[in-house]
Amino acid sequence: MVTRSDVARHVGVSDAVVSYVLNNKSFVKEETRMKVLQAIEELGYQPNHTARSLKTKKSFQLAVLTNYIGNPFEAGLLLHLEAAARNHGYMITYQSYCDGREDELKILLAGRVDGIVLLGQSLDAGTREFFLKRNVPMVSVMKQVQGDVVSVDMDWEAAYLQIIRELVRLGHRHIAFMSHSNLLDPLCCRLEGFMRAMQSDETFRSMDCTFLTGGGRYETAYQMVMELAEAPEFTAVLCANDLMAIGVNAACRSRGWNVPDRLSIIGSENILMVSETHPPIAALVYPRSEAAYAAIDILMQLIAGHSVNSKVLTADFVERPSLAGAAKHS
């Protein structure tokens, strides 16, 4: 069996240097790090994670609570979270979050993970306290509607403000915002940001605004539009996530409503699918890689016992053919 000492001798460094590389310590020279990693691969060295855990009293496992694994936005976040955790020597396990079944979550994760990454879930205060008492800190990618967990998320008020200004410039005076009917769903933080943006300027307060619930999913958004009694009065719909924007676009096509001549559609994440619809859908760009790496960095600091503040990200906007001037609407 290849040992750590074998790797050290092969490279010509001390056992401690190999340990530093395995634990991703930043003070190792990059050239040395690459030599050690190459030797590990060539020699087939397998770190003894059990011994490491016994020595450090850590599991080197993190849990990520997912909402809907079928959402490409979340799937992309998971890939980035996994890569970021690996850089710190951690493995990630995924667990679907079920509202009202947090006792099962305690049984499943207690004593098995060093930290938890939320995807915007608003855990009960008792659940948060349960894990904190056991030195299992949490960070959330996407701010929660309620709770005091440190988070990484976009400034939704600023993001939607730029969209509203663009809609006003294009002549839209009646717009819709599609979100989620569950007021604890993280999409409702985006709804709150939209409402704050609408109240931030006297010009916007005179606009008509319709609020729609699309359940956060393609199918629900599609069905909601299909059930409208007639063509809506609003000329643009801003969706809190991209799956709903794609569902609205598909429903418009089924009903014979031209996009963007009849209705402009905008998403909020810029997953790959929105650039492949007909027409391609304009969208805010959620920096998933930046959010994931920032969240893991924060969690590592929390595990080390440091105090860390939430991180706010800025959004770019990609204009695509689903957005047009209101003057074109009939």
From TrEMBL:
Q: Which Pfam families does this one have?
A: LacI, Peripla_BP_3
Residue ranges annotated for the HTH lacI-type domain, each copy included:
2-56
Is DNA-binding given among the entry's keywords?
yes
Q: Which UniProt keywords apply?
A: DNA-binding, Repressor, Transcription, Transcription regulation
InterPro entries recorded: HTH_LacI (IPR000843), LacI/GalR-like_sensor (IPR046335), Lambda_DNA-bd_dom_sf (IPR010982), Peripla_BP_I (IPR028082)
Q: Output the Gene Ontology terms for molecular function.
A: DNA binding
Residues passing through the membrane, by range:
none
Q: Which PANTHER family match?
A: HTH-TYPE TRANSCRIPTIONAL REPRESSOR PURR-RELATED (PTHR30146:SF148), LACI-RELATED TRANSCRIPTIONAL REPRESSOR (PTHR30146)
**Which named protein is this?**
DNA-binding LacI/PurR family transcriptional regulator
